[in-house]
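A quick aside before the break. I want you to see a complete sequence-to-structure record at least once, exactly as it would be stored in a machine-readable document. Don't worry about memorizing anything.
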Amino acid sequence: MARALLVVDVQNDFTEGGALAVTGGAEVARRITVFLHEHAAEYDLIVASRDWHHGDDDNGGHFAGSTGPDFVDTWPVHCVADTPGAEYHPDFDTASVDVHVRKGQGVPAYSAFEGTTPEGTTLGTLFEERDVREVDVVGIATDHCVRASALDALDGGAAVTVYEDLVVGVDPDRSAAALAEVRAAGGVVDRSDTDDGLHRPGGARL
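That is the input. The structure line, written in tokens, reads:
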């Protein structure tokens, strides 16, 4: 039985200054890196997902048209494949990531389980092959892709924990509702020990 960490969409376009910025995204990127430096060895598999949208179409209606985005089903252009906005945030150290998953290639996609590896393997298949039974979820955004990924992991039979200090959402109320939905589905919402690693002796921040 294996344990996995799933890092959801810690990308430039979802952090401050990006096309679809979430306030606090850069801080979460940094906190996830601190967590990885302390805990990467505790996981059998570390997966990071990214939106990786087409730049020459609306990705199945995911990108808003002339009427503008409704920020529910349609969005500003973001995370276009092979552009800086689609890259991981520079404060997210990917050195310990084992597998990278891309999603939303021409279609709307929120859950990391809708994506595939570069070889075309779905995340669900990968977890089945690796016998992943426990999944910890972190990343962006709590009320959208983190929520969808955590719920899909639960639907797949995994024991799921979302670390609420290592996620950040677009809307506080919807984010709280998303975490409540994860709990209601049988998941756990917990806090990491990252705060313990954010300060060096004497108070100097990492």
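Two observations worth writing down. The CA atoms of residues 128 and 156 lie 9 Å apart. The chain is about 25% helix and 20% strand. We'll return to this after the break.
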